[in-house]
Amino acid sequence: MKYSVGFRNGVLKKVLPPESRPIKDVAKEYGITEQTIHNWMQQLKSGKMEITSEESSPNFRSTAEKFRLVLESRSIPEDTMVYLNPTSETKSTVKSSAA
């Protein structure tokens, strides 16, 4: 199976420093084999592949990571959440009412 560059980069960033997570755990989290990760690391080491500095996209996050982010966001108070959404119309309403 061919994986996208972003997906591959996301996986490799998990197993390489500074995160240095166990390959077994990352493979399970992303639903891929440990051998696939070992192959990518070998290609990286030999210079046949490099990690690009793409923005982290939700499309490249594992299901477990997305779920963790959803749970984490639930602990943020609703009035604070408004400021985290750049398209929120409530944001300007809150600012103008505070003035």
Describe this structure as you would to a colleague.
By secondary structure, the protein is mainly α. The chain folds into 2 domains: 1-56, Orthogonal Bundle (Arc Repressor Mutant, subunit A); 62-99, no CATH class. It is 59% helix and 0% strand. The radius of gyration is 19 Å and the shape is elongated. The chain starts with a helix and ends with a helix.
Number of domains: 2
N- to C-terminal distance: 56 Å
CATH architectural name of the largest domain: Orthogonal Bundle
CATH domain fold name of the largest domain: Arc Repressor Mutant, subunit A
Report the C-alpha radius of gyration, rounded. 19 Å
- Relative helix content: 55-70%
**What would you call the quaternary organization?**
single chain
Mean pLDDT: 79
Instruction: Note the total helix count.
Output: 6
Task: Provide the succession of SSEs.
Answer: HHHHHH
Main beta sheet, described?
none
Keywords for this entry:
Arc Repressor Mutant, subunit A, 99 residues, 2 domains, 59% helix, mainly alpha
Quick overview:
This protein is mainly alpha-helical and 99 residues long.
Topology overview:
Blueprint: H1 5-15, H2 23-30, H3 34-46, H4 63-74, H5 78-81, H6 89-98
Helix pairs in contact: 2-3
